[in-house]
Amino acid sequence: DVKVTQSSRYLVKRTGEKVFLECVQDMDHENMFWYRQDPGLGLRLIYFSYDVKMKEKGDIPEGYSVSREKKERFSLILESASTNQTSMYLCASSTPSTSGGKQYFGPGTRLTVT
Amino acid sequence: AQSVTQLDSHVSVSEGTPVLLRCNYSSSYSPSLFWYVQHPNKGLQLLLKYTSAATLVKGINGFEAEFKKSETSFHLTKPSAHMSDAAEYFCVVREYGNKLVFGAGTILRVKS
């Protein structure tokens, strides 16, 4: 069974802090993704990565960066947290499109910035 | 860019009655479409997917969806709602590079 784990289920940080959200998958997937989920907006893609050290901006990358030093780990970084980044953050990994492209989601990290 | 529109933010049905969750998509080519479900405080779970094979797709828990190109729709249905179906449902289209574009979500409430 594919497992995608996220380092924290709940996190509370102060405005201006640097925040790291970690995601680890155990299926040797090349593709990994970070989304944020807000009520009435669904999930929106922040960043994604096709391979180690590769990253591409999604639809809402402002205020975020990512790091992919190892294949199994994809980190989301909030350089200077702001209250409008209070949200649920979901990580996903997927098989290639050629083999179905199914995305597997982690349980999410609910981040509150005060 | 591809997009999906979920036509109802909330749907309320009685237990045992049919469920219809509506989704329209916008795509410049033959899309891959998905429905995901998220139960309260749980992760996202794939219900079903359409990838240009049969237009009627059967998923888990008795759900199915029909791809209608002429109407650009991919509505989710279930003949008889169960209390455990109460959740939020997302219609999703896949873009290039395996990126997923999510609809805003439909919250399904099931009344006893």
Oligomer: heterodimer
Percent of residues in helices of chain B comes to under 10%
Radius of gyration of chain A: 13 Å
Order of helices and strands of chain B: EEEEEEEEEEEE
User: What does the average pLDDT of chain A come to?
Assistant: 93
Helix % of chain A is under 10%
Biggest sheet overview of chain B: 6 strands, mixed
Task: Give the CATH H-level superfamily of chain B.
Answer: Immunoglobulins
Give the class-level CATH name of chain A: Mainly Beta
The CATH top-level class label of chain B: Mainly Beta
Instruction: Count all strands of chain B and give the number.
Output: 12
> What is the name of the CATH topology of chain A?
Immunoglobulin-like
Word description of this protein:
The complex is a heterodimer of chains A (114) and B (112). Chain A has 114 residues and is mostly beta strands. Chain A has a single domain (4-102), classed as Immunoglobulin-like. Helices cover 0% and strands 54% of the residues of chain A. Chain A has no helices and 11 strands. In chain A, strands 2, 4, 5, 6, 9, 10 and 11 form a 7-stranded mixed β-sheet that branches. A 4-stranded antiparallel β-sheet of chain A has the order 1-3-8-7, with no helix packed on it. With 112 residues, chain B is mostly beta strands. Chain B has a single domain (3-8, 19-77, 85-104), classed as Immunoglobulins (Immunoglobulin-like, Sandwich), CATH 2.60.40. Chain B is built from no helices and 12 strands. Chain B has strands at 3-6, 10-14, 19-21, 23-26, 32-38, 44-50, 56-58, 64-68, 73-78, 87-94, 100-102, 106-111. In chain B, strands 2, 5, 6, 10, 11 and 12 form a 6-stranded mixed β-sheet that branches. In chain B, strands 3-9-8-7 form a 4-stranded antiparallel β-sheet, with no helix packed on it. In chain B, strand 5 (32-38) and strand 6 form a beta hairpin. The mean pLDDT of chain B is 92. Classes of the chains: A mainly beta (114), B mainly beta (112). Chain A binds chain B through residues 31, 33, 35, 40-45, 48, 50, 56, 58, 90, 92, 94, 96-97, 100-103, 105-108, and chain B through 6, 9, 32, 42-44, 46, 49, 51, 90, 94, 97-105.
